[in-house]
């Protein structure tokens, strides 16, 4: 029972990979996609409610999120018209995230990502990406996502660089 949240996160990794087997933006795609989204909400909720949160569980959740993001990028790339500017922007965001992870590793000898409001909002905006493609131009969606992702990535890096201790539950640079 105490590992149920971890099993949910691990199942999200496997389920996310099944998105390669269905047509993007089809009923099957959205069904699988929503199952992944629901599992992302429930794993942390269950861990907190059952008092079984752990560093391992937090890391499994982060890896599951990363797998989901990579799968989505691969699956949706062919149907989106990404400009060179947006691709470069995404690359820069990725570099900032990697630098942030390196700072954490060097300073604290661990792997962690923060649970800031910015990261949560970015995750929510990213989650709306496939739904938004039915209503908005992909360029508008990507600029919006990149703005939120840039702010959250820079905020996380600033928190890591300015902190003397690892604060994984720090909500924002503007809050104590």
TrEMBL record:
Transmembrane segments: 117-135, 141-161
Name the UniProt record assigns to this protein: CDP-alcohol phosphatidyltransferase
Protein family: Belongs to the CDP-alcohol phosphatidyltransferase class-I family.
Organism: Clostridium gelidum
InterPro entries cross-referenced by the UniProt entry: CDP-OH_P_trans, CDP-OH_PTrfase_TM_dom, CDP_ALCOHOL_P_TRANSF_CS
Species lineage: Bacteria, Bacillati, Bacillota, Clostridia, Eubacteriales
Entry-linked Pfam families: CDP-OH_P_transf (PF01066)
Keywords, in A-Z order: Membrane, Transferase, Transmembrane, Transmembrane helix
């Amino acid at each position: 029972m105490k590992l149920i949240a971890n099993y949910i996160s691990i199942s999200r990794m496997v389920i996310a990979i099944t998105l390669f087997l269905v047509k993007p933006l089809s009923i099957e795609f959205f069904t699988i996609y929503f199952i992944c989204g629901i599992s992302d909400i429930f794993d942390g909720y269950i861990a907190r409610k059952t008092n079984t949160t752990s560093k391992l569980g937090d890391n499994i959740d982060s890896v599951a999120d990363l797998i989901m993001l990579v799968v989505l990028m691969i699956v949706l790339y062919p149907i989106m018209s990404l400009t060179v500017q947006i691709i470069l922007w995404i690359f820069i965001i990725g570099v900032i995230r990697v630098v942030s992870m390196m700072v954490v590793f060097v300073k604290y000898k661990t792997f962690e990502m923060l649970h800031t409001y910015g990261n949560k909002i970015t995750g929510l905006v990213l989650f709306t990406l496939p739904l938004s493609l039915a209503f908005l131009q992909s360029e508008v969606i990507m600029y919006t996502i990149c703005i939120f992702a840039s702010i959250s990535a820079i905020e996380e890096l600033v928190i890591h660089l300015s902190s003397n201790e690892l604060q994984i539950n720090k909500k924002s640079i503007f809050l104590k």
